[in-house]
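EI: anyone free to look at a 162-residue chain?
SC: sure, send it
EI:
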Amino acid sequence: MSGIFLSLGSNLGDRRNNLYFAINEIGKYRLITIEKISSFYQTSPLGQKNQPDFINAVIRIKTGLSPDKLLFYIKSLESKMGRIKYLKWGPRKIDIDIIFYNDLFVKKHELTVPHPEAGKRLFVLEPLMEIAQDLTYPGTDLRITEMVNDLRKTIPFEDYNE
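SC: here you go
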């Protein structure tokens, strides 16, 4: 099973509404079809701990856009929603990342697919597992469910809440 998966997160303002708005905007774009949407997950922030918890989700889409054009679109949407990049792992109204783009591997200055940190983040893997249970992590023989189970053993409870 392959597919194009986007991860969304928000920890400023009305976090759930921010995700609903972003998902709605993505779905309205004529070159993108949303196929599945995960539940929303509340998670502790990485890095900068002195900030609100995040609400995260993953969506599966279908599109004819190239990875570069998809990236341009989602970064434009982030800007439209008021995203300001000023601190790595800092608070943000919206964050949208391309996690997988079918079985493609892309490594450019602006874009790396699969997302380089996705395999280490429960806030990506858990919602991904919910909507693509049989998915195998690209370039490996590992199923997402196996990766989630392994990560659950290593992440302290206080750093991850459902």
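EI: Confidence is low (pLDDT under 50) at residues 157-162.
SC: 👍
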